[in-house]
Amino acid sequence: MTRAGIFRGVIAVLVVGGAAAAFVIAWRPAIAAIEPPAQQSFAPDLVRRGRELAAMGNCNDCHTVRGARNHGAKNFAGGRPVRTPFGTVFSTNITPDAETGIGRWSEAAFRRAMLVGVDREGRHLYPTFPYDHFTNVSDDDNRALYAYLMTREPVHAPARENRLLFPFNLRVLIAGWKLLFFHPGTYRPDPMKSAEWNRGGYLVEGLAHCGACHTPRNALGAERADASFSGGDADNWRAYAINAQSSAPVPWDAEAIYTYLRDGWHPDHGTARGPMAEVVSNLSEVPASDVHAIATFMAEMFGEPAPERKRRGEEAIAQAKSGGGEMQMDSEGGAIYASACAACHEAGRPPPYGGINLGLSTAISDPDSRNLANIVLSGVRPVEGERSPIMPGFAGSMNDAQIAALLNYLRSRFSSQPAWTGVQKTIKDARGAETAFLQTSAGARNAPADPAERAKP
Amino acid sequence: MMTLKVNGQDHTIDAEPDTPLLYVLRDDLQLNAAKFGCGLGQCGSCTVIVDGRAVLSCVTPLVLLEGKQVTTLEGLGSVSEPAPIQRAFTEEQAAQCGYCIAGMMMRAQALLQRNPKASDEQIRAELAPHLCRCGTHMRILRAVRRAATLMDTAELLPAEQGSAR
């Protein structure tokens, strides 16, 4: 045998061996297709429980095209584009349609998708589907979710082709991603904590998948374990830090978190907007005890504020109650604020006719100016049939320079933080992404219906 | 004192910079097409066009309008020479009480200027913020579609040029 022949042989062995190893790592068997089960075969109580869990998981948000209610698209039929640094992934149809949905999936196939991110045919699913969290969902909860989804109206809606850059379009690579970043079933209750705290932890780390938006991601799109809840991205919105790094002017406590998540609004923090609006809309339909549990758990993630931070929070509230300071008309931003914003934001009127005092706004005190730009451009749409917070958008009446002047003014007047950089570009990008999203999202729920609550400034 | 450009004409306005555009149009310039509905930017009846975009004039203070072009319904056409959007609304009898209609027309006009081939979905989405209690919604949609056709064919007729755009 020649030397070259030996070399070729070694290469061949390596290639075949490598392929075999990759196959062993990546290959997952298909789970046999079933006849779509009859809707009556699921117990009503189980379906009801599944509905609450699906709301907790915010499933409809990703698995429904935005504005579906206006345009005839159906809940859970998939097709919503999720933009990632690696390209666009389209959510899939999770209605029980036999051909294009999950109608032929057994409960075992559904559970496997939730726990390890593999579809019925054995293909790896992209982690845009947050199985890194859903891996913590209990079998009982998966059974109820399955019952709920399998009793929805089947919709014929074929999956749209993902638009991913090479090599991310090769699903086999997901197996490698999982080896690096996916740790199945890691959540463990903490026996030192209360049952409520543990319930909250189970939901937050699992089905509610809060970290999917609120935790920053590494270069390969995995949540950074060393930075849990330090703030991330969702669409063109900033998902604020929800730990000790929170930039909220008033520190969050369990009671405020509960009210905000349940009603979409809190007098010391304002209104849930952007992708969070959909989340709180869903959280208004789950058991109150679960939202309390989440609040208990998250309050600990925020941590007890330092006395200094607490004092500044109290100051901000006192300042807001005493009304605005002098109007400053001498700068362009100040003149715009006084003319276009202050009439509502310093009115001291309860929502929906008065806006939050901007000294309490996280959008202004956060290092990222995107959320403020989004809100100024698009406003806050009313929720049908409810006394929800409202705000007109100013995309048409303010040009980019005017919005930039306004944002810079708000930052300097209402926060003690350094000036933002790149505000012009943020506004340009926000206009680009403008509001296809906001125009059609369901929006936040009501401001609290309890008159005592509404009377708060 | 500021100069406000409305329907192609400069006007010198003596008003505070926080005065809503709607008040100036109606009270100072006697341009009464835009209506006061809610005063909160929530009903759409005060809609006018500023630099090509539909704008809620009740929540647009003068300070934002320096150097910009305001167009009201009066600027599109008149009773004797109606613009395509006005003709279409008349021909479809899209108004009942009519209070919301001027605003609807202005937003539809801005949409069709931007996208002459707007789909039904786009027209519906665009007009969604406008409230109408009479219930002529289907006629309004037909009128906007008719206006799109009129604008399309008007471009072929030299005599009509300039009246609508």
Task: Walk me through this protein's architecture.
The complex is a heterodimer of chains A (457) and B (165). Chain A has 457 residues and is mainly alpha-helical. Chain A folds into three domains: 24-181, no CATH class; 195-302, no CATH class; 324-437, Cytochrome c-like domain (Cytochrome Bc1 Complex, Chain D, domain 2, Orthogonal Bundle). Chain A has 21 helices and seven strands. In chain A, a hairpin with a 2-residue loop joins strand 1 and strand 2 (87-90). In chain A, helix 11 (254-263) crosses helix 12 (275-283). Chain A starts with a helix and ends with a helix. Residues 436-457 of chain A have low confidence and may be disordered. In chain B, strands 2-1-5-3-4 form a five-stranded mixed beta sheet, sandwiched between helices. Chain B has six helices and five strands. In chain B, helix 3 crosses helix 6 (137-154) and helix 4 (101-114) crosses helix 6. Chain B has helices spanning 21-28, 73-76, 84-91, 101-114, 120-127, 137-154, and strands at 2-6, 9-13, 47-50, 53-56, 69-71. In chain B, 36% of the residues lie in helices and 13% in strands. Chain B has 165 residues and is an alpha+beta fold. Chain B folds into two domains: 2-75, Ubiquitin-like (UB roll) (Roll); 84-156, [2Fe-2S]-binding domain (DNA polymerase, domain 1), CATH 1.10.150. In chain B, strand 1 (2-6) and strand 2 form a beta hairpin. The chains are: A mainly alpha (457), B alpha+beta (165). The A-B interface holds A 67, 70-71, 329, 335-336, 338-340, 343, 353, 379, 381-382, 390-392, 395-399, 402, 439-440 and B 17-18, 40-42, 50-51, 53-56, 59-65, 121, 124-125, 128-129.
Overall SS class of chain B: alpha+beta
Low-confidence stretches of chain A: 436-457
Discrete helix count of chain A: 21
Sheet with most strands: strand arrangement of chain A: 1-2-3
